[in-house]
Design a protein that fits this description.
The protein has 251 residues and is mainly alpha-helical. The chain contains 12 helices and 3 strands; from the N terminus they run H-E-H-H-E-E-H-H-H-H-H-H-H-H-H.
Length: 251
């Protein structure tokens, strides 16, 4: 069935209170963006303009089931994409420091006014509402976490905010496959009883956070290369394997 990509639908803010919306889950980026729109003030007040909201990273992280660091990164990604603006305002009533963060939706008036349909009929979606995202960075945290647990090194019961922050930082330097390769190499070395130079079981967070850390176990990492050399030296030479001394033959 062909999907109609034209026109608009009305979405009431009370959907936030519905049974389906409250279902416990980790939000996708699209859901997080829609949630921001639903939280945004549609009418201006004495303190906040229409299309704005007072930002609480902790509140959003809890609502989306994200870590605070992932939430912070997402909000600032939206800012870089010119979808929102972020402003720090002095206020005596908000916190001890007197600071509060106000998030404003770019072009809010353009597509939320009563004349939206007629004013935007000739516009394309990217001009005023770029809401499509890739979700790899959120999913990759879980991929790395699950792969680590599969190796049975130290099994963690849950993916903590501290772990997410560490994985996020590592993913800025290496790909998921590189991290998985490093974990796999470390696991193999740790479980090799003949190899005495890798015997300590780190947690996932320690493994990724250590100086040089996981990079030592990449394909070109120093520790992995040393291990490969060790394995190569301990292998029987080919000519020795091929010699038949006749000891297993029956007389």
């Amino acid at each position: 069935m062909a999907r109609d990509k034209n026109g608009w639908i009305k979405l009431h803010r009370q959907i936030i209170d519905s049974e389906f919306y409250k279902e416990p889950r980790k939000f996708s980026k699209s859901e997080a963006w829609i949630d921001i729109l639903l939280r945004t003030n549609h009418k201006g007040t004495d303190n906040i303009e229409a299309g704005s909201l007072v930002l609480s990273y902790g509140e959003l992280a809890k609502a989306w089931n994200w870590s605070k660091s992932t939430t912070w990164d997402f909000i600032h990604y939206l800012e870089k994409q010119n979808m929102i603006t972020i402003t720090n305002i002095k206020s005596r009533t908000v916190s001890r420091t007197g600071d509060r963060t106000v998030l404003a939706i770019v072009n809010w008036a353009l597509y939320q006014s009563k004349r939206t349909a007629s004013r935007t009929a000739s516009r394309t979606i990217p001009e005023f509402l770029p809401i499509l995202f890739k979700e790899e960075d959120i999913k990759n945290n879980l991929v790395v976490f699950n792969f680590w647990n599969e190796q049975q090194i130290i099994v963690h019961k849950k993916l903590t905010p501290a772990m997410e922050k560490t994985i996020d930082k590592t993913l800025q330097e290496s790909t998921v496959e590189e991290i998985k390769t490093s974990i796999s190499h470390y696991s193999k070395m740790l479980k090799d009883k003949k190899y005495e130079y890798c015997s300590y079981a780190w947690s996932l967070e320690n493994f990724l956070n250590r100086e040089k850390g996981y990079k030592l176990f990449l394909d070109d990492g120093e520790k992995w290369i040393n291990y490969c050399n060790f394995v190569d030296k301990t292998k029987p030479r080919k000519e020795e394997q091929e010699i038949d001394w006749g000891w297993n033959k029956k007389n």
